[in-house]
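Students often ask why we bother encoding 3D structure as a string. The short answer is that it lets us treat folding as translation between two languages. Here is a chain of 228 residues written in the first language.
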Amino acid sequence: MTETAPANLQEYVLAQVAAKTSEDHIRQLIDKKLDEVIQGAVDDEFRYGGNLKKQITEAVSGALQVGGRLDIPAYGVMVMALLRDRLEANVSELLNKKLAADMDELLKISPKELKFSQVVESVIEDAKESKSWGSVSIIVEGSEYIDGAYHVGLDHDSGIKKRYECDTQFYVDPDGKISSLTVNRRDVTKVVGVAPYRSYQKMIFSAYACGSKLIMDDLDPSLEYGDY
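And here it is in the second language, the structure alphabet:
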């Protein structure tokens, strides 16, 4: 047994050397070392002071900034994105409900006929809410081209001398049809400012929208109200 051992050991060593120096084994060693090198490089980059860690930290910090008003990192982009999604999901519905309610208020069925004297009374009542006495501005100008047609300007404020300076203006034809209506100096066919409408503005808008006939029964109304 002892005489054959050196030969067997020599064969074993030679076999191991051959195995360890085979292409497959060397590839395995190279792969292992490459993994170690890559892992080490990645670890170094993520360690304190690593370049990649610094870049990621700066990117995340920048994304979380909401502005200079806060001394601590804010949720910035993420919070704004969440808020935007939530607002888009809910605001449209709330806004539509509010607009529908306001339009219902404006479009309450207007009578088939509306007297201009009623509108004048509404202008005066509106003015009284802020001042117990004074005057309003109501300007009625006959059309230069059509008999019985008028350009009208209404305003709860006093002292307005020109029709186009009034907050509410419209044209009424001989048949009492209202057109060219502007409220708060805005064309109602383009912009309907629901919230600021005063009582007389709502009255005229409703008559305009519902096609009511405006009877011009008082072309020179009294502008003063209350006791001076």
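Translate back mentally: The mean pLDDT is 76. Keep this in mind for the problem set.
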